[in-house]
TrEMBL record:
Entry-linked InterPro entries: Cd-R_transporter
Transmembrane segments: 40-61, 68-86, 106-126, 133-154, 174-193
Domain of life: Bacteria
Keyword Glycosyltransferase assigned: no
Keywords for the protein's UniProt record, in alphabetical order: Membrane, Transmembrane, Transmembrane helix
Organism: Nitrospirillum amazonense
Name this polypeptide is given: Cadmium resistance protein CadD (Predicted permease)
Length: 198
C-alpha cells in the first residue's frame, strides 16, 4: 500500500512538472472563444491519453522516442495559429469554431507540446509494474480534469475572466504559433531538415 501511495505522489509530481505549460494553453483556449468548453475538455483528455499511450508503447517496446522526430508535431499548432490569424483573430467568434476542429484540434495542440511528456513517461512506465501503471494513469486522468477545471475557472472568473478573455482571444494565435516553433526548435528538428536540404 505504501508503494502505491508513493507511486501516486510521484505521478502527481510528474504530471504537474510535464503539464504546467498545458495549464496556460488551456486558459488561452478557454479565453479565446474559438472552441466550446466541452470540446476543449475532451481534446485535453484525448491529447493526454495519446501521450500516455505513446509513453506506454515506448516503455513496452523499450524504445526511447527520438525527440528530433517529435519536433514535427510542432507543425500542428503553427497551422492552427495561422488559420486563426487568417480568419481574423478570435474576437466575437464564440459560436463559430465549434465545427472547426473541436476536440481534435485541441488534442493536436496538447500532443504537439508533449515531447517532454513522452520523454518522461517512457522511463517512468518502464520502471513500474502493472498496478503502479494503473495508479499512475488514474492520477493523470484525475489531474487532467483538475487542469481543465482550473483553466476554465481562470478564464471565466468575474475579476480575472474579462481581461483574460479580452487578451486571450488576441494572443491565442500567437501562443499556438510560438508553441509550435518552440517544439520544433527545442527538438532540433530544424537541423534535421537542413541536413535533408543540403
Amino acid at each position: 500500500m505504501d508503494t502505491l501511495f508513493l507511486c501516486a505522489a510521484a505521478a502527481v509530481a510528474v504530471f504537474a512538472a510535464t503539464n504546467i505549460d498545458d495549464l496556460f494553453i488551456l486558459v488561452a483556449l478557454f479565453a479565446g472563444g474559438r472552441w466550446r468548453a466541452r470540446d476543449i475538455a475532451a481534446g485535453q483528455f484525448l491529447g493526454i491519453a495519446i501521450l500516455v499511450a505513446a509513453g506506454l508503447t515506448g516503455a513496452l517496446a523499450a524504445l526511447v522516442v527520438n525527440p528530433v522526430w517529435l519536433g514535427f508535431l510542432g507543425v500542428a499548432p503553427i497551422l492552427l495559429g495561422v488559420r486563426l490569424l487568417w480568419q481574423g483573430g478570435t474576437e466575437g467568434e464564440s459560436d463559430a469554431p465549434a465545427a472547426q476542429g473541436g476536440a481534435w484540434a485541441v488534442a493536436a495542440v496538447t500532443v504537439a507540446g508533449g515531447g517532454d511528456n513522452i520523454g518522461v513517461y517512457v522511463p517512468l512506465f518502464a520502471a513500474q509494474d502493472a498496478s503502479q501503471i494503473v495508479v499512475t494513469v488514474a492520477v493523470f486522468a484525475v489531474l487532467t480534469g483538475a487542469w481543465v477545471a482550473l483553466a476554465h475557472w481562470l478564464a471565466t472568473h468575474p475579476s480575472a475572466g474579462p481581461p483574460v478573455r479580452r487578451w486571450g482571444g488576441r494572443l491565442l494565435p500567437w501562443v499556438l504559433i510560438g508553441i509550435g516553433g518552440w517544439v520544433i526548435a527545442d527538438a532540433g528538428t530544424f537541423a534535421l531538415v537542413r541536413s535533408w536540404l543540403g
